[in-house]
Amino acid sequence: DIDSGKVTALTTQQNLRRFDVSADGRFIIAERNRHGFTQLVKLEIATGQLSDLTAPALEHIFDYPRFSPDAQQFAVVHFIQGKGWQLELRHSQDAQVQRIVPMPADYQYLSFPTCSLDGRSLFFGASEHSRLKLYRYELASQQLYALSDGAEMIQMVQPLANGRLLAQLVLVESQEVVQDRRLGGGDGRLCAAACVGNDGAGDKLAVGK
User: What does pTM read for this prediction?
Assistant: First the structure.
């Protein structure tokens, strides 16, 4: 509790990892990993009731569940043995797959999905030829756009109320900020907002606008 400073444990010995909280604060969807078996679960915050959304499985891995603004569905990264990583939209009540998001050709890595504030698009990172790029997928038109060229590793994107994006940039070789980089497939630019780190390497917050 931010006001009182009181910390309350919601679960014990459940091995919940990545999770997201619904906008109204009523429930959480999380990935649970126990004894090598992974699954999606739903936690009612008021009652502490924990329910399975998917069955425990060895050949499946879930990561980074992220709610849509109305919490009716959530995006989640899903690894299936023999198929690799895919990004799915699932229903929040029963975790039924509603849509599988198309990926760029020859991608190897997929992570950090997030929904736009209006619920019309998804942002995520995917690697292509060893470069991690930022992508936007428009749900209505089903179009996929690359928003960066992979020169910087962009992750943990957070849409802002003014229509811009806040993201973390990881620059390994230099601490110099890349200013005014045009984002492919969009009408924005990538500009530095803050910087931490030293010794020629660091993390930067970037805003696409």
Answer: 0.78
